[in-house]
Design brief:
Two copies of one chain form a homodimer. The first copy, chain A, has helices at 53-60, 71-77, 89-95, 116-128, 142-154, 164-169, 171-179, 193-201, 209-221, 235-254, 270-284, 302-305, 348-355, 366-380, 386-405, 423-430, 441-448, and strands at 7-8, 18-20, 34-35, 40-41, 66-68, 85-87, 100-105, 133-138, 158-163, 183-187, 226-228, 261-265, 291-297, 307-312, 321-326, 360-364, 410-415. The longest helix of chain A has 20 residues, at 235-254. Chain A is globular and about 60 Å long. Chain A is built from 17 helices and 17 strands. Chain A starts with 6 loop residues before the first strand and ends in an 11-residue tail after the last helix. In chain A, the strands form five sheets. Chain A has a seven-stranded mixed sheet, sandwiched between helices. Chain A has a four-stranded parallel sheet with strand order 10-9-8-11, sandwiched between helices. By secondary structure, the first copy, chain A, is an alpha/beta fold. In chain A, helix 1 (53-60) packs across helix 10, helix 3 crosses helix 14 (366-380) and helix 5 (142-154) packs parallel to helix 7 (171-179). Chain A binds chain B through residues 5-7, 9, 11-12, 76, 78-80, 86, 90, 108-112, 116, 149, 152-153, 171-172, 175-176, 178-181, 374, 377-383, 418, 420-421, 423-424, 426-427, 430, and chain B through 5-7, 9, 11-12, 78-80, 86, 90, 108-112, 116, 149, 152-153, 171-172, 175-176, 178-181, 374, 377-383, 418, 420-421, 423-424, 426-427, 430.
Chain lengths: 459, 459
């Protein structure tokens, strides 16, 4: 048997020079976005007020299979890529499993997560178009940090609307974003109509991701030379994140491996969509048939308990509507929920693939997630982000199943980031103050009641 | 010209299999440690109550040039080593310098610093000897985290005395250490004589590194099967940290480079001693003559303004006395000082080499350090620990000097870790609340007054 090292690094030359667009190989495409102003399918130009032109094009382009990565983005990637594929020898031993567990670690950069892969692309295209500023939202803060790094590098001013409860509870996250020169505003704020409206209704609100998106979009469309960027859900983001999967596949080829099971955490789908991209291609083209598993929190179960329906991406209902698995833009996860992945919807591409049976989804409760996180940290010495720990949980569960059956399956999961800024949640778990919350059918119904009605399409 | 990638990774096979013991090549050795009980040079057995036997041997062994790294430690190293050597292309461009800047990045592991290199070695030897627990102290928290990771891996209970002011100001750092299963006690505490004495004299004290060392040593020597471990200053620590320099040298050989200038931050000397080890060997043996620069804070200037004298390593004066550059164990850096590197003494090996003219030292003020840190973060996208940023400051200064002279010097510096837990200091800098403090001669004199008197040796 070939001696497989713990960390499999590609060389700089092996960083992909093209992103892979999964849509080009989908037998059935996701339903088109709907422009809420017209009730008709959105066209590329509808997106120009919000997104820069190249990104709007990538958003709508379902045909180009491979997209060249501009040299400037490649140069940036070289600062922190290729990321390692790691064989979890110690975790395997601790679980006494015949399974071989690999993880692609995207946390080895200052943003602490995979988010940088798309942030640099979006900042670059904005700069190339001559835009003069960007806006975005951030919840847990990984996306805000990543975009601040990218904007700082390309010299683009950035305003980050940070969900107020995060802004207050995570002053260090805020400080990192500020270190990279971005302006951080707690959301809801009085800098936008959307924010003022929410504050008037509920002055004490801690904010939400959907509300922060509404503010960031409004600010972008009302500021000359400004556009909005988003770190997940979008097709363009999945395109950029395909570097994760492409590198993973190359690394596995180098050691003569192919995953039987691929596992990723799923909030908006950015990491999962990127990790699985080339493997899903094999599945769509009949070349291979790995199991693909999305893992989501039991307290925000868009795949496993959501509706496949048209919905808004934000609470102010100003973005285009997308067909996706959603809990409704009015759904709010329990305040007990600690581990990120709290977005109400899901990538339309992943939603379609799930709907058509190409992938599975499981939901896990957060105490089991943190149990997995601590076990992983002790064995592999990497402190995972709570989001990433959802994938760890399911990878462990699958490896334990292999122990029962005696099967030496090859498991690949995405370790999206590190948990340095999530110690409040770790402490709650360690001190047994963490509780699980599974929303009741009635709670979910409230979210579904917020789904839009679109004459002739969704009544 | 050879095309040098941004990140130069060695393969797993290229992780050094032996540590390099710099003392074996020193023409004049450091003066021996003095046992405070006898006033005579300490022998190996004098150290057994405090350190485990193999480590006591490494501490005193001035002859063995290369020490085999046990397989178990190598296996652990493979989880996070080799660490990358990175060419700072973007920083060079921003500085418009002809200099070539390389940095060895040791922050890509969960402890966030190079400290893990020695932590795993010390935990392993303790376990091998059949010890049942360990104690240590931690200030900023990097060492405590690293040792907690290592002890967790080898199943050794660990008690960390954490300087009280850090314990209170860095709850997240504490939580990381606890996640790895260690017991964290704010120091001074009522768990030791040393702690109770200090609390009786000054109930409101925020503690100090020297006091935490006293508590950890006392706890170790009064608990059966327990020993004390220290993350810096010691000869054994420099030995373990030589992996940094050995990997750096191999990586530079691969790209046909050799540093003209080697720069490291210096608190107790663990990183600097490890980084320079094989290059200092070249210098001692006449093979090469790089400039070697230690960088320390202006507010804790042991090399540049300290005395070369025998001193205790702790404030309770129970450890052996070492000849080193020191500000006196009674010296306390200004409370304004944010950036670590606050130990009163310095590695005896480095002290001797500095005293004999083999290396230089500079001190830098903290606002200039943070200015360099922010510039570096924006260009290289890694948020450095304040400690590491001392080396960045001097590397930038040297690169700017090259711009003046037009010399294309090759600069290598050690980037010891990341600054995720130091955002309070970053915020103070960004909000212009950070002030510099250069101790007056009178302040320094108070520290020197605490130096021990040893009949016949130091009057």
């Amino acid at each position: 048997m070939k001696n497989i090292p713990h960390r499999i690094y590609l060389t700089e030359d092996q960083i992909p020079r093209q992103w892979y667009n999964l849509r080009a190989d989908m037998k059935q495409l996701p339903d088109p976005m709907i422009n809420p102003a017209t009730g008709k399918p959105a066209v590329e130009a509808d997106l120009y007020p919000v997104f820069c032109e190249k990104l709007a094009h990538q958003e709508m382009d379902n045909e180009t299979r491979f997209v060249d990565i501009p040299e400037e983005i490649l140069e940036f990637y070289k600062m922190y890529r290729p990321s390692p594929l790691i064989r979890a020898y110690n975790l395997e031993k601790a679980l006494d499993t015949p399974a071989k567990i690999y993880y692609k670690f995207e946390g080895n950069n200052t943003s602490g997560s995979h988010k940088l892969n798309s942030a640099v692309a979006q900042a670059y295209y904005a700069k190339e178009q001559g835009l003069t500023s960007l806006t975005t939202e951030t919840g847990a803060g990984q996306w805000g940090t990543a975009l601040a790094e990218a904007c700082s590098f390309f010299g683009l001013p950035l305003t980050v609307y940070m969900v107020k409860v995060s802004y207050e509870q995570k002053p260090f996250r805020k400080a990192v974003i500020q270190t990279f020169g971005a302006d951080v505003i707690p959301s809801p704020s009085n800098t936008t109509e959307a924010g003022r409206k929410i504050l008037a209704e509920n002055p004490e609100t801690g904010g939400s991701l959907g509300c922060a998106i509404s503010e960031a979009v409004e600010k972008a469309v009302t500021t000359p030379g400004c556009r909005y960027v988003l770190g997940s859900v979008l097709n363009q983001v999945l395109l950029h994140q395909s570097v994760i999967g492409l590198e993973s596949m190359t690394a596995m080829e180098m050691i003569d491996e192919y995953p039987d099971i691929i596992i990723g955490c799923a909030g908006g789908g950015s990491n999962l969509g990127g990790l699985i991209a080339p493997f899903m291609r094999d599945k769509l083209t009949g070349k291979a048939d790995p199991r693909i598993i999305a893992v989501e929190p039991a307290s925000c179960p868009s795949f496993t308990r959501g509706r496949y329906a048209y919905d808004f991406c934000d609470t102010a209902k100003i973005t285009p509507m997308a067909k996706m698995y959603t809990l409704g833009s009015g759904f709010m996860p329990s305040p007990n929920h600690a581990g990120g992945l709290r977005y109400h919807g899901m990538s339309p591409v992943l939603s379609k693939l799930y709907h058509d049976g190409y992938m599975e989804a499981v939901s896990v409760e957060q105490t089991r997630v943190f149990e997995a996180a601590v076990l992983f940290a002790k064995q592999e010495t990497i402190l995972p982000a709570p989001e990433s720990a959802h994938a760890i949980r399911t990878a462990i569960d699958e490896a334990l199943r292999c122990r029962e059956t005696g099967e030496a399956k090859t498991i690949l999961f995405g370790l999206t980031g590190t948990g340095y800024f999530d110690m409040t949640a770790y402490s709650a778990y360690l001190e047994k103050r963490m509780v699980d919350h599974i929303p009741s059918d009635e709670e979910l119904q409230k979210g579904f009641d917020s789904l839009p009605k679109i004459p002739g399409i969704q009544e």
